[in-house]
Specification:
By secondary structure, the chain is α/β, with parallel strands linked by helices.
Length: 322
């Protein structure tokens, strides 16, 4: 399945800490001006608090301008594409010139360590993506979204919401028929159902996204896909009928599945500095709880930066050059 190691934040480090540390790096290195940040979109499935939202926490941690528009999306594995769509919509519908998109996840222990069906694939990360208005009318991203809520129980945390609040009963650990241990407070995944959903639904989704973008599937240079495990992505490449070498499958084995962050991690890890000079045609695709699907076609590149940072831990948000 490609499970070798995963990156887990220490208990003191929250989703907002990871994000604020990354943004402080961008401010320190001059890639962004703090006083010029006019819109912040934060996408996460884990929150520092029940209220306020993560965007307000990050705003306060960094001391962003008071007229900065802040909003939160509660989203999981399709979250990067949903956030990208939201950022593009803000730019298209207003006089906002630039949106800072944060996707973040910390709390992989949300899965029970004794549940081999979920815990080995989980990881923690944050990504910052800066989306700017282009003067070229043809410079756009084409999006496609689908949802099948009738299959929502295939990937679910049963307890913790209003339908089933946390209690002593929901915290009781039980063993399933596969020998995995979890409680109703933990994530539950029907791996077979999710695998079937992805194999059936993602290939036509990619075809639809290419048609909508008016590009041939063969012109896509890279498929930048959400990464649950290597086996699933190898089979998916075969079904989409593209070389496995352009549908990367090496993120979970090196970092773990960080939900909303796997596509940015995929981009930075596999393309990195190439995107500073190149501008390949790419297809983003993702699938996750809901069950939900998302895809986008974009000419990605000529970036100002595309780098990895290692967070030092202990909840820090301060970046200092080493």
């Amino acid at each position: 399945m490609g499970f070798k190691e995963h990156r887990i934040a220490d208990p003191q480090t929250t989703p907002c800490d990871l994000a604020s540390y990354t943004l402080n790096y961008l401010f320190h290195e001059g890639y962004l001006e703090k006083d010029a940040v006019s819109a912040l979109v934060v996408v996460a499935q884990m929150a520092d608090h029940l209220t306020p939202g993560n965007s307000k926490v990050i705003h306060g941690q960094l001391g962003l301008p008071r007229d900065c528009f802040c909003t939160d999306l509660y989203e999981n594995c399709i979250g990067f594409i949903s956030g990208l769509y939201t950022a593009c919509s803000l730019i298209a519908a207003s006089d906002i010139e630039e949106v800072v998109l944060v996707t973040t996840d910390a709390g992989a222990c949300y899965a029970n360590k004794l549940d081999r069906n979920t815990y080995p694939l989980c990881g923690d990360a944050a990504a910052v993506t800066v989306v700017s208005k282009s003067a070229d009318i043809d410079d756009k991203i084409s999006f496609v979204f689908h949802t099948d809520g009738s299959r929502r129980e295939a990937l679910i945390v049963p307890a913790g919401g209003r339908r089933m609040p946390y209690s002593e009963e929901t915290a009781k650990v039980f063993q399933d028929e596969m020998g995995n241990y979890r409680s109703l407070n933990n994530m539950h995944m029907d791996g077979t159902a999710v695998f079937q959903f992805v194999m059936e639904e993602v290939p036509p989704l990619v075809e639809e996204a290419c048609r909508y973008a008016k590009v041939a599937k063969g012109d896509i240079r890279y498929h930048l896909t959400h990464q649950p495990n290597r086996f699933m992505l190898e089979k998916l490449a075969d079904l989409i009928d593209v070389p496995r070498s352009i549908l990367f499958n090496n993120i979970v084995e090196n970092f773990g599945n960080s939900s909303t962050v796997t596509i940015p991690v995929n981009i930075a890890f596999n393309l990195g500095e190439r995107l500073l000079t190149e501008r390949p045609l790419v297809c983003y695709s993702a699938f996750g709880a809901g069950l939900s699907l998302a895809a986008g076609v974009d000419r990605l590149g000529k970036l100002d930066f595309c780098k990895f940072l290692e967070h030092p831990g202990e909840g820090t948000i301060a970046y200092t050059a080493s």
